[in-house]
Amino acid sequence: PGSRDAAAGATPRPGGHCGASPTHPEWNAMEYDEKLARFRQAHLNPFNKQLGPRQHEQRPGEEAPEATPEEALPELPPAEPEFRCAERVMDLGLSEDHFSRPVGLFLASDVQQLQQAIEACKQVILELPEQSEKQKDAVVRLIHLRLKLQELKDPNEDEPNIRVLLEHRFYKEKSKSVKQTCDKCNTIIWGLIQTWYTCTGCYYRCHSKCLNLISKPCVSSKVSHQAEYELNICPETGLDSQDYRCAECRVPISLRGVPSEARQCDYTGQYYCSHCHWNDLAIIPARVVHNWDFEPRKVGVGRWGHLGIAGCGGRGMRYLALMVSRPVLRLREINPLLFNYVEELVEIRKLRQDILLMKPYFLTCREAMEARLLLQLQDRQHFVENDEMYSVQDLLDVHAGRLGCSLTEIHTLFAKHIKLDCERCQAKGFVCELCREGDVLFPFDSHTSVCTDCSAVFHRDCYYDNSTTCPKCARLSLRKQSLFQEPGADVEA
User: Fold this and answer.
1) Residue 137 CB neighbour total at 10 angstroms
2) How far apart are CA 401 and CA 222, in angstroms?
3) How many angstroms separate the CA atoms of 52 and 59, rounded?
4) Is residue 106 packed enough to be buried (19+ CB in 10 Å), middle (13-18) or exposed (0-12)?
5) Residue 214 near residue 170, CB atoms below 8 Å
6) How far is it, in rounded angstroms, from Cα 229 to Cα 234?
7) Whether the Cβ atoms of residue 20 and residue 6 lie closer than 8 Å to each other
8) Angle between helices 392-400 and 402-416 (to 10 degrees)
9) Which residues contact 444 (CB under 8 A, 6 or more apart)?
């Protein structure tokens, strides 16, 4: 009772502690202990459901001291909450296991641990119910683990932006797309975590780790130095000439598909395995110039196997794609009868000849040079250089009817400038010296003929009626004779 009154601030009754006064040291110590005990009881750890109000202070290895009547804690007033009651413990959500490891989650920092984690995650996926949410989550975790493993195998180092290798000019790509495939190892390029390069010449794509494995030079450099087509239609020599091996990677192949299927390239006539021949379709130049056949056929010259250069793979015939606009076909020598069979080619040849006759007018006309009229043919520069060379793209456009229409429009524009818009070009016209009649003539007019010796222009009918003589050629011949005779006459005098 004396302790309770002392804790409450009341004056103690005599005889409680041998007549000690409130200022006595023993009384002050007892009052401090009682207040400390009440404070600790009021601030019990709510997470401890088993320990009593004094047991939570017990250190490990110490024995619990026996409570004496004097050290017993005072009773709490009825209004104060009792934290030791299990029913009154605060609900902080501890019944849930927030810190447990999710199914399929593995913490790994090296390649070996990641491989073990991937195998364990595969096993978890097989054990979980089909199409369940947990199985889907485990699949997602498996994908992340594989990406992490790939990242460790191919770290994203500070790679140079430009790499020059075997005449390839590789530029580091910034695209994060995952739809690309490495042309060296035939695996997917994970743009999010892998560094990859593209050659600006032949568009060869590969991982940064595959750059040093490339053994063949860039196809664009080969095309620029030695541009030529195989002009024999499917020159097959047979599997025996290839020792029953792929013409590119030398893997054993056979027509039965064992051990690997043999696929023939209609362009080279050689056989390739399924890794080098991806059944791409392309128009064969030999079939076009000999048969006027534009049906796409399966091609697969490996990685440019017929030229010994890198590039093709299965993402399209890059060699044919790079060559399609190069004028390397001299049709008059390869197949002159083709002009008798395809009437459109005759019209195209006449338009090209007229454009070559217009070219000297533009080169000497300031207005034409300022207007850059010749740039109308910048996509077909060979049209202003000769009338014999054709590209596969030219023949494709002739077959589709596009080239005739576009070239006719350009021809009309050029003729309009020379005959109507420009006075300087009009002044360079010709008058038929055989009939001295009619309008001013130009060499590209359809009703005119041009002398092959002096380039004089005449009406066609007049020229053929007087084909034995050309007035301008006769005049030039007399002038030359007079020049040779004059020095001799002076000597005789």
Assistant:
1) 17
2) 32
3) 14
4) middle
5) no
6) 12
7) no
8) 100
9) 354, 355, 357, 358, 415
158: tokens are 């500070």
Which pTM does this prediction carry?
A: 0.58
pLDDT in tens, 103-156: 444 445 577 888 888 899 999 999 998 888 888 888 888 887 887 777 666 555
Residue 273 CA, distance from chain mean position: 25
Question: The tokens of 68 are what?
Answer: 């004496």
As a whole number of angstroms, the distance between CA 178 and CA 153 comes to: 17
3-state secondary structure 95-142: CCCCCCCCCCCCCCCCHHHHHHHHHHHHHHHHHCCCCCHHHHHHHHHH
d(CA 184, CA 171): 16
The first and second tokens of residue 335, run together, are 């197949």
d(CA 232, CA 250): 24
The residue written with tokens 């090296």 in the block is 110
Which residue has tokens 């524009």? Answer: 413
Low-confidence ranges of the chain (pLDDT < 50): 1-23, 47, 49-107, 301-316, 491-493
Q: Which residue has the tokens 């250069």?
A: 309
Q: Which amino acid, one-letter code, is at 182?
A: C
Structure confidence by residue, pLDDT tens digits, 431-444: 888 888 878 999 99
| Inter-residue contact 114 to 152 (CB < 8 Å) | yes
Look up tokens 């743009």; give the residue: 191
Spell out a b/e string for 375-403, using b for 16 or more CB atoms within 10 Å of the CB, else e. Answer: ebbeebebbbeebebbbbbbbebbbeeeb
The residue type found at 307 is L
